[in-house]
Design brief:
By secondary structure, this protein is mainly α. The protein has two domains: about 210 residues, Farnesyl Diphosphate Synthase (Orthogonal Bundle), CATH 1.10.600; about 190 residues, no CATH class. It has 20 helices and two strands. The protein has a two-stranded antiparallel sheet. Helix 12 crosses helix 13. The radius of gyration is 27 Å and the shape is globular. One of its GO terms (biological process) is carotenoid biosynthetic process. Keywords: Carotenoid biosynthesis, Transferase. It catalyses: 2 (2E,6E,10E)-geranylgeranyl diphosphate = 15-cis-phytoene + 2 diphosphate.
Length: about 500
């Protein structure tokens, strides 16, 4: 386990020690990083385009004005502006009948070190229209490419809960409230396009996962797409250059990436894809940085290890690179029991689902990993079945290997069953998508068995029509509490292929 400082914050109040009869690791809730760098070059150009999708006809619509109004506290700003206007209108003295800007400037001159709240708002309306040289702010919208820095507009950050990423058009001719609404509207357009790009990346790199998330409500699936995109980019940092770069350089890159993650949780987006995650975190505040940081630890394991001696070693790796995804998305999925108690009960099944998915990926990709000189199967398991590393690299497919694969498949299915027992703990609108994802991934194991456990020459693949055919059965599984649906589920199971009944 990598050294680090345990910071038991937020997540620690509902994350228990993840131990059971299958492994013995105590999973740390958070590892703090001492990294200080805040700039990361565009190292993920192979994953995303240099600019985000500019298509205005996408299906993701901007947030309504009312929801933006409530979430950003514009109501309070509106009442402050109205009250300020009424105070000035009620002033009958000719000495105080000057414009709002003049009053504000004179007030700031009399007390430069202690501005009142009202004067700070009015001076903001003047200074936000000028840059550091005294020239009007440009009315163009800065593009958000993959390597752009955060763009902050003068005093806008004093009243905006998050970093602004657009400038105000004709700000010197707009009221304070008008500039705020304009900035919000432009930013929301960027957020919408950012989510659309996250959707595209998810659909491109994980068709099975994307199909499952498409069953979620709009706000939930957009947040899950943002998290998947971050996970994909994190993996891409080490997956491509892993063979040619030294691990020390990659560790530095991951430390920079972790510092960038910390900025995201402070509301600072460095590029368009970060912006989607910033917005998702603001909508689901129970999302914590701990599992994201643990995933970065998993990437470090991936560049330092190409063998795993025991299943305990492999379990820690699977938790960090996949089990953490369950913890990332659990606050988005929601639980049937509100509050921390509901989250605490759902933690272990959520992690189990991630472990099962990763074990399935490992079994599916044995042949590909072999070509890279990597063996994710625990060496103790190879020894148990008298199967050697050289046998694996020579693609020896015999009774020993078949028995080894049966053992691994049975283990993965145990974690899927553990995860399935926790589906009812989720909120009602999240059960069907999670069950569907679980069932579709389980079918990869069915295909592996149907292929005679030949994962050297044949990749276990689930066709699109088979995925769609899984959906009715997955829906029925979420309705087992109803006697009528339970009867239909039993009938559906009886019609399933024999391979689906293999329990390992």
């Amino acid at each position: 386990m990598n050294n680090g400082i345990l910071a038991f914050s937020h997540l620690s109040s509902w994350t228990p020690s993840l131990t059971n009869q299958h492994h013995s690791y105590n999973i740390p809730c958070r590892i703090c990083s001492n990294s200080t760098s805040s700039k990361l070059p565009n190292t993920v150009s192979a994953v995303i385009d240099n600019s985000i999708n500019r298509n205005k006809n996408n299906s993701q619509l901007p947030e309504s004005v009312h929801s933006i109004h409530d979430r950003l506290g514009i109501g309070a700003l509106w009442h402050e502006s109205q009250a300020e206007k009424e105070r000035h209108e009620n002033q009958s003295s000719p000495d105080t009948s000057s414009s709002l800007s003049q009053t504000s400037l004179s007030s700031s001159t009399r007390s430069p070190s202690a501005k009142t709240h009202n004067s700070s708002l009015t001076t903001s309306s003047l200074t936000s229209s000028l840059n550091s040289t005294g020239q009007p702010v440009t009315d163009s919208i800065p593009p958000l490419d993959a390597d752009d820095d955060v763009i902050t507009i003068t005093d806008e950050s004093e009243v905006m809960p998050w970093d602004t990423t657009t400038s105000s058009r004709h700000a010197h001719n707009m009221s304070l409230l008008g500039r705020r609404f304009h900035s919000i509207r432009k930013r929301q357009q960027l957020v919408t396009r950012s989510y659309e790009e996250c959707r595209r990346i998810t659909a491109l790199f994980s068709k099975t996962f994307y199909m499952g998330t498409s069953l979620l409500s709009s706000d939930k699936r957009r947040a899950v797409w943002a998290i998947y995109t971050w996970c994909r980019r994190t993996d891409d940092l080490v997956d491509g250059p892993r063979v040619t770069q030294r691990s020390a350089g990659l560790r530095d890159t991951l430390r920079i990436w972790e510092n960038r993650l910390n900025n995201i949780f402070m509301g600072k987006a460095q590029d368009a894809l970060d912006l989607a995650l910033v917005d998702a975190i603001s909508q689901f505040p129970e999302i914590t940085p701990a599992p994201f940081q643990d995933m970065i630890k998993g990437m470090i394991m991936d560049i330092e290890q190409d063998r795993f001696n025991t299943f305990d070693d492999l379990y820690l790796y699977c938790y960090r690179v996949a089990g953490t995804v369950g913890l990332m998305t659990l606050p988005i999925m929601g639980t049937s029991q509100e509050g921390r108690d509901g989250l605490r009960q759902a933690v272990e099944p959520a992690v189990a689902l991630g472990i099962g998915l990763q074990l399935t990926n490992i079994l599916r990709d044995v042949g590909e990993d072999r070509l890279r000189g990597r063996i994710y199967l625990p060496l103790e398991d190879l020894k148990r079945f008298n199967y050697t590393e050289q046998d694996l690299f020579n693609c020896v497919l015999d009774a020993r290997y078949v028995n080894l694969m049966k053992f691994q498949v049975a283990r993965a299915r145990r974690y899927f069953r553990q995860a399935e027992r926790g589906v009812h703990l989720l909120s009602e609108d999240s059960r069907f998508p999670v069950q569907a994802s679980l069932d579709m991934y389980s079918q990869i194991l069915d295909v592996l068995e149907a292929n005679g456990y030949d994962n050297f020459n044949r990749r276990a693949h689930i066709s699109r029509w088979r995925k769609f055919a899984t959906l009715p059965s997955s829906y029925l599984r979420t309705q087992e509490s109803n006697a009528f649906w339970s009867t239909l589920l039993t009938a559906a199971d009886s019609l399933s292929a024999p391979s689906n009944k293999t329990s390992g």
